[in-house]
Amino acid sequence: MTAQEATLIAAVIAAVASVSKLLFDRFSENRSSFRALLQPLVADLGESLHGIVATCNVMSRSNSAEQHENWHTKAKAERDKLKALRPKLRYPLWGVDDGLRVLLRLPEWTAHARGQPKRLKLLITRATRLREAIDAVALRCYRNGRLPDAFERLQVRLYAWHCQKVFQDGPDQADAADA
Predict the structure, then answer these.
(1) How would CATH label the architecture of 39-178?
(2) CA of 76: how far to CAs of 68, 87, 119, in Å?
(3) Where are the domains of the chain?
(4) What is the pTM of this model?
């Protein structure tokens, strides 16, 4: 190997190293900016998601009409918190909006299904599963500094559909027979 060939190889290696460093720095910068965008929203999202499902859960188990109305008011307050947060999350968590919209309807669906214990239990179970999926997606997106991938969007959409289907299917036949 001649001195010219060695110099050429060293120059190519240096060029490849500098280009790869530029690409890595760009990726790191994008990741940092995405995390900065999500950082103020993630804690509020987790609190709002848990709050709306938890209040609806308690509302579903309330015995008296007064208790039910008090918990319904609290659930609507939690819904309003999530509703205020939703537009800020629409683009950073692209594809999760379907799940958020379903959870926004949860207080009304829970109130509508009052007196149908099997339907309420199924609704709360599926809403909890949806909440957990949205929580996991938000955490992974924050940790990795990226948008939700296709699998995560599909998972949230599926859980949202499952939750919505409980409401759309109407009263369970066993619940209707008990009434």
Answers:
(1) Up-down Bundle (1.20)
(2) 12, 18, 20
(3) 39-178
(4) 0.80
